Amino acid sequence: MWDTNGRKIKHFLKALNLHRKKTGLKNEKAVDSFINVLKKEEKEGQTAWVKNAKMKAAAKLKKYGIWQHQIQEVLERRGLSHLSSKIS
Fold first, then answer.
1. Residue 71 burial (10 A CB sphere; 0-12, 13-18, 19+)
2. Is residue 29 pLDDT above 60, yes or no?
3. Cβ atoms of 35 and 71 closer than 8 Å
4. For the chain, what are the domain ranges?
5. Residue 2: strand, helix, or coil
6. For the chain, percent of residues with pLDDT exceeding 90
7. What is the average per-residue pLDDT within 50-79?
8. So what's the pLDDT on residue 14?
9. DSSP summary character for residue 32
10. Residue-wise burial string across 16-51, b where 16 or more C-beta atoms lie within 10 A, e elsewhere
11. DSSP 17
12. pTM
């Protein structure tokens, strides 16, 4: 039969303070990936890969609640303000 003594639960609850933080730098990485897609679009043009990647990166920004003006501020800080025209 099955193991019903609950070992799995005890193992999961062991040393909770050693678990890592789950969120990490998701917001910053989402903005970075969107900016990388914009750079690639500037370099290669509007390809199918760029179109799909831009759509996925924009969906991630929307999921995390990052607005377009926040991306423009990051672009200006990094000296890439010429890419702000490609944000839709």
1. buried
2. yes
3. yes
4. 24-86
5. coil
6. 60
7. 93
8. 57
9. H
10. eeeeeeeeeeeeeebbebbbebbeebeeeeeeeebe
11. G
12. 0.72
